[in-house]
Structures are given as structure tokens and as C-alpha cells.
Amino acid sequence: MLAEQVTALAGAGATALIGAMATDLWQGARGGAVRLFGRGGEERGSAMGAQLDEDAALVGRAAPDGAADEIRAELLPVWRRRLILLLEEHPEYEADLRALVDSVRDGLPDSRQVWTQHNTARDHGTLFAVQGGNLHYHQAGAGHVPPPENRNDQDGRGGQDGRNDHDDRNGRGGRGGTGGAR
Hints:
By secondary structure, this protein is an all-alpha fold. It has helices at residues 3-20, 26-38, 42-62, 68-89, 94-107. It has 5 helices and no strands. Helix 1 (3-20) packs parallel to helix 5 (94-107) and helix 2 packs antiparallel against helix 3.
């Protein structure tokens, strides 16, 4: 499995686990994750189960205050990393993780489903990506593209100190010369 595929599947798995916390689906999602991690040894599965319980308790305590989504967002990269490491160590667990993701995703209401999207553009490519929204792209016609901003241009006349780099009072062009007051 390619690194991008591992990252995407781990992200989907983490999203499903975190999304199921403090819902009716939690016990099933937790059990599936413990079985998945436990395939590497019962001790490992127990340790992950304890961590999942602790994280779910954090989400559950925060739910009345409205901070549950913030805690879920903080937990997401942690569980994504754990699942990436698991898949790198045991690529044969891919099908089991996909099944867990599908079962949790199917049970979550639309408002609780959290989606993660990773996009990469390479080799001077352009990437347009939208998730659950609209993309409005407008390209200027030929000859209508504004010149790039000069971040060093403080007063709009040229160089960093406001002098035009192509014309100075001595007629030599560029920077230099004894120059005079402008």
C-alpha cells in the first residue's frame, strides 16, 4: 500500500473512531479498534482500549459545554498517527480497518460525520479541491493578469528604500553612485 493510501485510510479510521466517541456507536467502534490493535498482542489491545476509554471520557465530559468538537479535533492527529504506525507494521490489517471505518461511518448521523481530505499537487500542478461546498474559479483573460506584488516595494516606486532600481540621479541605472537628495 502506498504511503498516501496508508495516510488516507488511517485518517478515515481516526475520523470514524473520534466521531463515534460519546455516541451510541462507541462500544462497537471501541471493540473493533481494540480487536485491531490486539492482533499485535493482547497487551497492546488492552493498552489501546484504555487510551480510547480515556479519550472518549474527555469527549463525553466536554459534550454539554460544546467543547467536544475541539477535543475531537485535537485527538484526530494522535489516532491517525497510531493507525499509520499500525498499518505500516501490519499492512495486512487494511481490510479490517476499512470494515471498521465503513461500519462506524454507516451508523453516524450526517452531522457527526467528520471528513478529512489530503490533497497534493506535484510538478508545477494545480489542484482544486472542495469538500461539502462550492468552488468558484475565475481565470483572468490573456493580458489581464496583474503584475506580481513586490514585497520589498514600500512606497510603490521601486526598490526597498523607495529608489527606482533602474534610474538614479546620476543616470547610471541600478543602485550606487553618490546620489543626491530626491
